[in-house]
Amino acid sequence: MTRRYAEFRRALEPLALEPREILLSSRYAWQLKLSSGLSVQLGRDAEREGIGARLGRLVSAYPQTLGKFTRKIDYVDLRYPNGFALRLPEFAQTKSKNWKRGRT
Questions:
Q1: What is the pLDDT of residue 104?
Q2: What ranges make up the beta strands (E) of 28-74?
Q3: Residue 13's CATH number
Q4: Which pTM does this prediction carry?
């Protein structure tokens, strides 16, 4: 955990963000909570693409993408091989309400 914290902190330095929480699930999937409040799903460390490479992808894309958002972003999922997904709070609530009503 300590070694990973140091790695995550170094990787996030160009964005002036820090990991505030580091979680490792029972399935060995990593998740970060950043100083900005953003949650980042890194997933499991894999031979094909490790979590360092995924976090690097976020750091390199952040200034041109997420860094330009004026709305709050709750969650970024980096487990995709060619990009990432994000969730905005207002869409999470809308989907939740639709599920309760029986719509998808």
A1: 45
A2: 29-34, 39-44
A3: 3.40.50.11690
A4: 0.79
Burial of 48 (0-12, 13-18, 19+ CB in 10 A): exposed
- Judged against a pLDDT cut of 80, whether residue 98 lies above it is answered with no
- Tokens representing 38 are 């953003």
Judged against a pLDDT cut of 60, whether residue 93 lies above it is answered with no
Which residues 6+ apart lie within 8 Å of 47 measured at CB? none
Instruction: Give the range of the structural domain holding residue 10, as residue numbers without chain letter.
Output: 2-100
- Residue pair 44/29 in contact (Cβ under 8 Å)? The answer is yes
∠ CA 67-41-13, rounded to 5°: 45
